[in-house]
Structure formats: structure tokens, C-alpha cells
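From the shared-data thread, chain only:
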Amino acid sequence: MRYQNVELHNVEAVVPLEGGGVRLSRVPEPVRLALNPAARDVRAYHTCGCEIRFVLKGEEARLTLRKGAGPAVSKSGQAEVYFGPFQGVYPWAAVHVDGQGSEIVVRRPGNLEHLQQLARDGGMGFDPAVVRIILPYDWIYELVSIEGDLLPPEPGQLPAQRLLCYGSSITHGGDSVRPAGTYAMRTARRLGMDLIHLGFAGSAHMEDAMALYIASRGDWHLAVVEMGINVIGDWEEERFERQVRRFLTMLSTGLRDRRVLCTDLFLCRHDLEGQEKAARFRGIVRSAAEALGHPGVVYVPGTELLPDASLLSADLVHPSAEGHEAIAARLGERLRRG
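Structure, as C-alpha cells:
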């Protein structure tokens, strides 16, 4: 969405805050209000996959970000600055954002024309003239102020196609270390696509409202939906099967020539501890996808995308940074095959 003189990517609504600044929501308000409490009140405002994008007309831009109050995992988060497809150099490679507010000052690279030529020659999708401030993925981050002579990017300066990813904290980016390191972001980059990021940590409950919202969006070309890990502890198999079937049926409505890849639990502690429920959940997702009989809906088990325990973090649930990259490599290859 356009906000002032920038593009807020992966943002569908802004909420003005008392004392200044705005909170960013990744879904429209009617959708947010129809989600489970954790997704509705917290996760919808997490900024995973959100970017502030602009083209510098003047010499520099100054933006202030602030970490929102609440029981976050860490005291600060990491933002990154990219010039189109190119990661910024120090001090832009990693910018820490805390609750007091952090200013990011961005200046035009001295070698911009060379970067643009390389991007054109390599078919990289993003114009390096587009500054991308990639927001932290792990909590609520607020936009306090924007200063500078800026323009939102034009469509021709961005990738022509979009990948949409929906799922749990794993899709959200848990333990990926940096916002551009999530498997969703890395997969989009491998495919040369832009990313619509709908990871909902601990709250991917496959609601009807979410399915209808994703299906109604006409701006994505491929979608990945990851299902199961957030409900395996609380839902019985009958409830999971019912909701997966509803979710996939709604997603397939109006699919036309677009494709949806559905997956389930990546290798995790449930498997490593010998719990059979994980395998049964995977069977449910497989059966639901196959029962649709839709050529645009394909199933890939999560254990095919992340098959090795060495790619997990110490909680044996979330992939490590290396694990996110491994998922992206396998997922990108599978999506290219069709």
C-alpha cells in the first residue's frame, strides 16, 4: 500500500498510534477480526516480510522504526537495507531496532548505475534504485517517521510475479536469524519473484476468512501453504481433517492458472520422539490435496523439504538458518518443476 511517499510492501492497513507513528497490519481489518485471538491481536501486526520501499530523488532518506511494547523474545530486532536485489553494505547490512526507536539513514550508492546494469543483465527483477528496508520478522515494529525527497517504486522496478506463503512460525521465519533469511524470502529470491508473507507464528489455524482472503487476492502466481504444526497439540485428527479440506477447497476457488503447493509438518521433535500423530496429520493433508483433484493443487510432505535433524534448531521444531536455506532450495526446485 502507498503511505506518504513510500510503498509499504506486504502491508494492508496502518493503525495510527497515540504519540505518533503507525502500526502495520499484514491483512485487511475484516480478515484480522475473523482470526483466532493470537493471530488477530498480535501476529497480524508482526512485520515478517514487510518492507518500506522507495526511490531516492534527493541524496538521503531518514526513517525511524520502533519495536512495539509487549512480551517479545528479544529486546531488539534486526532490519536490513537492500538496494533492489543487492544487500546493503555496513552499516546497512544489519540495523538493530529497539523500543526507544532507531533511525536508519540511507544514501544512494555511488555505483548505482553499475548495479542497475548487473541487475538487468542477470534478470534480477528488482531495480537497485529501489531501496528496500526489510523489517524484522520476530515481533511488532512500528513506523515512526519518514523524511526525505522520495518516490514509491514503479511496477516496472519490481518483479513481475509474486509468491504467497502462509503457515506457522516456521513460515513466519523462526530462527532464520535475519529477515531476508526466512525460507519464504529465500524461495522467492530463488524464483525471481516478490513475496507476500503470511506466516502466523503459533496461530496458523487455517480459518475460512484466511482461505477466502488468499483466494480473493489476484496479485499472486504461486502459493505455498504449510499446515499442521500449530494445531497438532490441541486438535484431534477429525477436526484437523475437516479444516484442511475446507481450507484447500476455498483456496482452489478461482485458482485458474495459478498453483498452490500444500505441505505439512517439517521433520520435528514429534517424529524424533516417535509420536505417530505427526505421520497421521501428514496423511490427512495428502488425502485432502489429492481428493480435490485439482491440477493446480499439489502436495509435498514437509519431511521432503526438511529431511535431516541436523537442519533443526535446538528446540527440534524450528529450522536453523541453514535449515531455512535448505527448505528454500528444495521448495524452489519443486515449484520450478510445476
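The mean pLDDT is 95.
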